[in-house]
Design a protein that fits this description.
Strand content: under 5%
Order of helices and strands: HHHHHHHHHH
Largest sheet: none
Distance between the termini: 40 Å
Radius of gyration: 16 Å
Bound molecules: fe (ii) ion
Structural class: mainly alpha
Helix content: over 70%
Number of strands: 0
Length: 184
């Protein structure tokens, strides 16, 4: 299956020691984005294949080279294009995946973007809210923040993300959001 080829390529890149997000990134972030993005996609009736491919590839430039983090949406779209051409995907699909990656950095609202872009961008924000252990690890170990700065950074992330989520995304994780917010 074509998606499996991409998934295993991304997982392999994540497991390399050069991955600045750590080897946990695949399981704790990319697989979570895929899970929530495809759930949302079923609710919103989008194209699951596009959403899965974009979920796996949306941060790929920063996995390969952490220094690209500030422009990783643009750089990851370029990487994705190269990888997907190489694996024989058709150009219409590649364009749709690229748009999801380019526009994933804030949760997009209904009717302002394609369904697939909405799913991936909202799932990216969800993944931070529902996984405090990885994102606090990221704040401490990857960003080298001290205890209070890490805690405030994370609290700020979950608040900003929660406010921006579309309604069906909020409904999906409301319980987890309340629990995490209270526990941090
Ligand atoms: Fe991400």
């Amino acid at each position: 299956m074509m998606i499996e080829t991409i998934r295993s390529y991304v997982e392999e890149q994540c497991n390399k020691k050069e991955n600045g997000f750590s080897k946990y990134f695949y399981e704790e972030h990319l697989a979570q984005v895929k899970k929530y993005a495809t759930e949302l996609c079923q609710i919103l009736h989008g194209d699951i294949e596009i959403v899965e491919l974009a979920s796996y590839l949306h941060d790929i430039s920063a996995v390969i080279d952490y220094k690209t983090l500030s422009t990783h949406n643009i750089d990851s779209a370029k990487y994705a294009e190269e990888i997907l051409i190489d694996k024989g995907f058709d150009s219409a699909k590649i364009e749709k995946v690229k748009s999801c990656i380019l526009n994933h950095t804030v949760p997009l609202q209904i009717n302002t973007a394609s369904i697939e872009e909405i799913c991936v961008s909202n799932a990216d924000a969800i993944s931070q809210i529902v996984n405090p252990s990885y994102w606090l690890f990221f704040a401490f170990n990857v960003r080298s923040l001290n205890y209070l700065d890490a805690k405030n950074w994370y609290l700020n992330r979950i608040e900003t993300n929660w406010i921006a989520l579309i309604e069906p995304a909020k409904q999906m994780i409301e319980n987890k959001y309340r629990i995490v917010k209270e526990a941090i």
